[in-house]
Amino acid sequence: MAKKRRTPQEATIDPTAQEMLIFAEGLDIGTAFTRADDMAACPIGSDGMCCKICSMGPCRITKDGQTGVCGATVDTIQARNLIRGISAGAAAHSDHGRGMAFTLKEVANGEIEGYVIRDVAKLRTLAAGYDIPIEGRSPSEVADDLADLYLSQFGQQSGVVITTKRAPEQRQKLWEKTGVMPRGIDREIVECLHRTHIGDDQDAEHILQHAVRTAVGDGWGGSMIATDISDILFGTPAPVLGNANLGVLKEDYVNIVVHGHEPTLSEMIVSVTQYPEIIEYAKATGAEGINVSGICCTANEILMRQGIPVAGNFLQQELAILTGAVDSMVVDVQCIMQAIVGIAKHFHTEIVTTSDKVKIKGATHIQFDEHHAIDIAKQIVRRGVDNYKNRGEVQIPDAVQQMVPGFSHEYINYALGGSFRASLRPLNDAIMSGRIRGVAAIVGCNNPRDQHDYLHTYITKELLQQDVLIVETGCSAIACAKDGLMLGEAGIDLDQVGPGLREICETGGIPPVLHMGSCVDNSRILTILTQVVAEGGLGDDIDQIPALGLAPEWMSEKALSIGTYCMASGAYVIFGGSSPVEGKPDRIPESGIVPKFISEGWEKLYGGKIEFMADPDDIIKASLDHIDKKRAALGLPEYDPTRFGQSGDARMLAFEELPLAEKRESLYGVPVA
Ligand code: NFS
Fold it and tell me: What pLDDT is attached to residue 656?
């Protein structure tokens, strides 16, 4: 029997998404929301208790004591399923990093058009950190060496992935001791597949140890390399004004939506849409111009650096097409639903695939090649312009939210410390005094099995009121941007944030929720945590900081890899929803081994742990308990919001309201007539 479908209001909290879901229903067009309603998740697979790695199966464990045909126990099966997910996530991030490293190499050698080294200072700082000579050398020479060094990390067979040296020293020692220091980024991913082939590693803890090693190679390797090089080539983000939600689509303009993850093509598309000849070309068709916007992490990449508007997060890719206003949706890699091609058939939208790794049947493929980046970007944009005339009726929701993204770790240092003493000292001090109770990184996807954006925004708002500073990336960041939480004003609104956090937001002129970028940019969060440790006063390793990571609406394997490397770095990580290795411990006790191991077992080894929680209030409580526990362990004062909120703008505003005589008295200390 088909499950009951949710109403649009039950499916999403975003009014633009609700509007488009009602519109879709009227046209009898299905979306991820309705498909999720119509298809119940497989109960055995969703507990991680189905093994299909060989053709003796698939084997499904439904009873206590049962094993696979080969004799694999349920914990082995769960561990294998989990590590395969983690390795796929690590592969996706790291392959993105590899692509960036190739681009840097080609830019350094003058082999490709359109790209330049935009952040020479970051290039030199990073290179110097690896003992690459920088004095008296051109940026191209330095970049060539850095690209070689980074490229070698993927195929390295032995030794240590060099970027892990950027972790706190204690952490590196711990990884060495526990045998999870990655040797080469690719090597660990390949080994995941080897170990999980039939007849290999059959000890759940041993399998999962390698999952940790692989994930560290992602966060402190592939992802970090991706972020470093994106900053070098496209600029290190600093705050810009941006806009978010489906209302950024413009009725009178050619709308080109870029979707996926890599900045390489989208940056070129943004660039060519500013060429006079291309603008003229668009105007000749009767459009006012060209409007580029983004979905998912490609959106985050160009938003962070150029303020290009975000049309929406993961669950809005289909909804953008439903507006009828998207002339071209240009996709690269990752998080692209096959369903967009089917939806596009109801409208004039052309889906253009561009990566040699991603083709979708029914889409137009225009192979992107960096050697001809400008020409190909122009070709893609012109096609979008040509398609404008085929538009039918449009229905663009009238909702746009302003936001201020662009909080790279470099900028956060500057925002807190000023240009001459860029430093995280004020952040550490604020945590130590209790003005900031702790820090939560809220990251990750949307999942149509949850109410779209609800968990991201609800948990964020509740933690803000408890003086928890929030940093975000990925689709979580887009959810909170749409909800107005990424504006300076949000930081001074006492209904939104606690009194201590408000003082910090006022002083730094920052929003209470800091957009730190795309999902590979979670590596920025690792860097900040390392700098917090180095700054002093909050312990000597990441696991001592009153901080944690949350992925409330996760769905992708990349999220599993992110959660695992954050855990390995010492963080408590809470995923929302159900665990992919939930098991049925009440009926099948052995299926509780893996869930317990990734929580308590990993905590003993790494100081971080992974848990899955369905109830948002449980997530909030666990987060605050964790922060308070870490504060107590550091000997910091207990969190007490009544001590704060009297400084800065609050005091000024109260002063403004005083009668004149009292104002004078408060200024001069004695009554003044
Ligand atoms: Ni992250 Fe970014 Fe979004 Fe999830 Fe997909 S876009 S890389 S995986 S869905 S946050």
Answer: 72
Between the CA of 199 and the centroid of ligand 1 the distance, in Å, is 33
User: Is the model's pLDDT at 419 over the cut of 70?
Assistant: no
Pocket of ligand 1 (CB under 6 A): 261, 296-297, 314, 335, 444-445, 474-475, 518-519, 556, 558-559
Model pLDDT, residue 1 = 44
The protein residue with its alpha carbon nearest to ligand 1, atom 9, reads 445
> Torsion angle of alpha carbons 344, 347, 349, 351, nearest 10°?
20
All structural domains of the chain with their residue ranges: 8-60, 74-234, 242-401, 406-577+614-642
Q: Whose CA is nearest to atom 6 of ligand 1?
A: 296
Of 548, 309, 319, 616, nearest in space to 448 by CA: 319
> Can 242-401 and 406-577+614-642 be said to share one CATH topology?
yes
Atom of ligand 1 nearest to the CA of 313: 3
CA distance 330 to 170: 44
Model confidence at 646: pLDDT above 60: yes
Q: Whose CA is nearest to atom 5 of ligand 1?
A: 335
Q: Measuring from atom 4 of ligand 1, which residue has the nearest CA?
A: 445
Q: How far is 476 from 244, CA to CA, in rounded Å?
A: 13
In angstroms, rounded to a whole number, what is the distance separating the alpha carbons of residues 599 and 573? 9
CATH of domain 406-577+614-642: 3.40.50.2030
670 pLDDT band, cuts 50/70/90, is confident
Is the separation of the CB atoms in 513 and 485 below 8 Å? yes
Measured distance CA(407)–CA(413) in Å, rounded = 10
CATH number of this structure's domain 74-234, picked from the four choices 1.20.1270.30, 3.40.50.2300, 3.40.640.10, 3.30.70.20: 1.20.1270.30
- Which residue CA neighbors atom 7 of ligand 1 most closely? 519
Least confident segment among 149-153, 164-168, 391-395, 657-661: 657-661
Long-range pairs for 414-423: beta carbons < 8 A, 24 or more residues apart: 414/238, 415/508, 415/509, 415/510, 416/508, 423/535
Distance CA 612, CA 619 (A): 9
- Label each residue of 52-112 as H, E or C: CCCCCCCEECCCCCCCCCCCCCHHHHHHHHHHHHHHHHHHHHHHHHHHHHHHHHHHHCCCC
The predicted model gives 441-455 an average pLDDT of 98
The architecture that CATH gives domain 242-401 is 3-Layer(aba) Sandwich (3.40)
Find the mean pLDDT for residues 190-208.
98
Q: Which atom of ligand 1 is nearest to the CA of 555?
A: 4
Question: For a substitution probing ligand 1, which of 230, 297, 318 has the most ligand atoms within 8 Å of its CB?
Answer: 297
**Backbone φ and ψ of 287, nearest 5°:** -80, 160
